[in-house]
C-alpha cells in the first residue's frame, strides 16, 4: 500500500534519526549515564525567561486560538519585518513575511512556490540531510555541489558549472549544519556575481534560499546579512535554536523587498502554506516570539561545550576544525568508511552521525548541545575507540 518512492525514501532515511533511535536502545540497556549521545541537534538550553511568561499570557487569550490569515498575525509579521529592516537597511513590511511551521515548514512552502517538475536546486555539500526529501516533495531535483574539502568554504567555480537552464535556486545554510562554517562576505559576493551572470545567460529566475536556523549562534565571526548580498533572496528562519523552541514549530519566511517577483512570491507562500496543510503557523507561538524577538539563549554555554568536545576529540587523535557557529563538530573519520567508524563508535556507546548522511563521506558529525558531563565522560570511550581503530 505504501508508495514505492516513500518506501525507498524510508529505507534511505536520515542517519540522524537512525542514530538517535540507536541511542534510545543503548540507554535502555546500559543506562542514560553510560551512553554518550551526540546524534541529534536537540538544544538542551532553557528558553529565555520571557518565553514562559508570554506563553502563560497568550494561553488564556481566546483570540490566538482562532483562524487567522494564512501568512500569520499582522502584528507579528510587522514586528519581524521591523527587525529585518533594522538588520539589513531594507524596507521590509509585513507583506514580505509569512509565518511558518518551523524552518522545515517554511522551506517546503518556499520550494512548493518555486518549483515546477524537473527544476533543480543546488545544495552545497555537506548539507542538512532532509534537503533532498524537501526538494523531491515538490517535483524537483537536488544537485549537490561539494564545498572545498577541509575548509568547507564555497567552491564558486563548481557552483557556476552546476547551474543550467533548469536551476531555480541555490540552497545555502550558514552557519552550516553539519560543519559550523560561516560563509564570508567575500565568497558570498562572488557567488552573487555568478548568479547574476548565469541568470542573464539563461534568462531565468535564480534565487538564493537561505536556511538560517543557526543565525544567532556564532562565536565571533561575522555572519553576512544575505539580503545585502543579492536581490532574489528568500530567508527561512526558525526559533528552534535561538530560543530553544524546537517543539514549538515556529519560524518565518522572509522575501527580500528587492525580489524580482515580490508580490507573486509572497502570495504564493501564503497559498502553499495553506495547501500543504499547515494552514498557518501556531497561533500562541507567533505571539510568544513577537514578545521575545530580541531574546537569545546563552551562546557562551555552547561555546564552552564546543571547546570541551574539540579538546576531547583532538586528545583522542581525531582531526577536526573548530566551528564558527551552530553546535556541531564535523570531524574527519580515522578510517575511510565513515559508516564503519560510526558503527564501531556505537559499540563504545558513542552516538555520532556519518558524513555520508550529509552528502560528505569520510567525516562524522557530533552535536555538542548536550550536558557537559556527557562530553567529559565520553573521553575515555573516544580514546578506546581510536585505539581499536588503529588496530
| Gap between N and C termini | 47 Å
Q: How is the biggest beta sheet arranged?
A: 7 strands, mixed
CATH topology of the largest domain, what is it called? Aspartate Aminotransferase, domain 2
Task: Look at the helices and sheets and give the structural class.
Answer: alpha/beta
* Strand order, largest beta sheet: 2-8-7-6-5-3-4
Question: Which stretches are low in confidence, meaning pLDDT under 50 for 5 or more residues running?
Answer: none
- Number of E-state strands: 12
Q: Which CATH-level-2 architecture of the largest domain?
A: 3-Layer(aba) Sandwich
What is the name of the CATH superfamily of the largest domain?
Type I PLP-dependent aspartate aminotransferase-like (Major domain)
Can you walk through the features of this model?
- With 391 residues, the protein is of the alpha/beta class.
- The chain has 2 domains: 4-47 and 297-389, Alpha-Beta Complex (Aspartate Aminotransferase, domain 1), CATH 3.90.1150.10; 49-290, Aspartate Aminotransferase, domain 2, CATH 3.40.640.
- The chain has 14 helices and 12 strands.
- The protein has helices at residues 4-11, 15-30, 49-59, 74-88, 102-114, 131-137, 156-162, 185-202, 262-275, 283-290, 299-316, 338-347, 372-377, 379-389, and strands at residues 36-37, 97-100, 120-125, 141-146, 167-173, 207-211, 233-238, 251-255, 328-332, 350-351, 353-354, 363-367.
- A 7-stranded mixed sheet has the order 2-8-7-6-5-3-4, sandwiched between helices. Strands 9-12-11 form a 3-stranded antiparallel sheet.
- The radius of gyration is 21 Å and the shape is globular.
- The termini are far apart.
- The relative contact order is 0.17.
- The mean pLDDT is 95.
